[in-house]
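Let us work through a complete example step by step.
Step 1: write down the sequence.
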Amino acid sequence: MRAILPTFVDTKYNIIRSQERRLAKAVAKKVVKMPDITIWVFMVPFIFFFTLLKYRRTHETFVLNMLFTKRLALDAALDIAKKGQSRQDAVAQIDNKTQDILNADNKGIYSEKIRRKQMNEINLLLDHYLKLLGAEGNSYEALVKDAYQNRDNYEAFLRELVPVERAVNRAAIQTVGASETAYEIVSGMERATERIRAEQAEKIFP
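Step 2: predict the structure and record it as tokens.
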């Protein structure tokens, strides 16, 4: 059971988690578009609030989906950094959890191919989060700067992350047989993510 007063590693964990959520929400704003609101919708309050609620739920679902692998990797990094769990055991736990999700899926939404690609992403993210949890700083920018030392090192990690994230997206599209619209959404998500991360890297290492 976690202590009532957070330790320093808990503080860094929360900083990283908050940053990943901010990134996901920023991407969602770029990709998940609010439906057109006509004058008739405003004249019927129930329809307006229903439309707004549906948009917010879609927005939050997008954020949660984008954070799925990040949270698994970050929680595993916390267990390693705080509880002394081995990396092998931490990865095995994630592997078992995603296998359970796959076994429970009866709609064909999840697949072994998606799961394998996610495990590749999680392994890369796990190393990244362990670096951040072992760094010094009281902000995300400070943690990244201490962990990676310079922009070249940090951007090398981002370049490594891009193809593994895309592999997950492509596996998902192939599994569900997505439409052209889905391809456009995924492509927009990938472009927005890269752009926001590039802006952040420039801010951290000007």
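Step 3: interpret the result. The longest helix spans residues 45-83.
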